[in-house]
Amino acid sequence: MTSQLRVMSIYEGFFSGGARALHTTVVAGLHTGGSQRHSVLSIYAAMRRETLLQRMENDASYRSLHAIGVDVRPLGRRIGGDTAARKTFSPSEVATAFAHAERADIILSLKEQPLRLVNLPGFPRRPVVVCLHRSDPENQGSALTEFRTAVADGRVAAAICCAESTRSAYEAAGIPSRLLKVIPNGVDLSRFQPVPARRRAALRRSLGVPAKAEVVTLAARYDPMKNIPLFLASARRYLEREPNGHVLMCGAGMTTANAELCGMLNDLFGDEPRFLSRLHLMGIRRDMEAVYAATDVVALTSTSGEAAPLCLIEGAMCGAVPVSTDIGDTAIIVAGHGLITAPDPDAIAAGWSEAVDRRAEFTPRLLGSRERFSHTRMIASYATVIDAAYHDLGLRVPQRL
Q: Does domain 5-186+374-391 match CATH 3.40.50.720?
């Protein structure tokens, strides 16, 4: 006999990104913890992001969930076709979604976009917890309308916000404050940690970076919210001022296959192409803990949308000094062990240089803050909200053979 709560997450799809990586950590922790049994329904079996078609089976999050026995199923639809057609669901897709939901006790929606599926007439009545990871609900297309509809229909039992800025933004957008619960992001501290000097030098060699280089890393997908033009302009200033400086760009779309990115590089470095030998396009990496451990500064230049960027936390836990523009909760995240800069290339480049110079000062503070960013704390908080969302509706975990 078991009393496990059956929890089904709904994703738009699997692709490289911080929110999916974080949600995977949560699902894995809760699934292996014993009191909950998790599954995932992915609306799309493949997602086109930036210059890549990312198939579910090739995604790191999918593989890690599958490896621990989490049931992951696609709804069956493919990327492509008319936008209006993609907003509707076929009878077979609806039947598949309803069948999976019937086998769950509670639904987690990764961001608000999947709520268009939950809001379909006849979707099984299950308490819904919406997991929010941005601070710009007004820029999420029709997703905010779907969120409001689900709230008005009484489907939403709680909304987990990864940052105070997220809570404030959605409250301002009309989501009742009683539903909004803040759980700050956390990471696996056994994975993201500093390494000894000898190992650090070896990691740098494997990345094609000199052992004594001053390394700045951006870990982000190629997306307007990341403000890649601002980052590249800052990188140009940094490489000009620091002869030993190197810049790493990791994430979906950060490759020479991205014609738009290459065009920007040509525009910014065409007069001094020699600097490009110290700017490394590395694409999607499965070993970001190694990249961060080889890094002096983990950078972010976003000017919209961010809430609690996972890259700053992961980098900091590996000993890299976080330097970011003031967006979302970044000032809270880097307080005491990193720097906030104005969204200006000269200011950002100067901030990177200052962070490198002060790394010995910041390192003890980074190490002292590790427990604050523990994923075990985050997972326990998610469990509390999920259990409360179920029980507060007067329901009890069913006893099953």
A: no
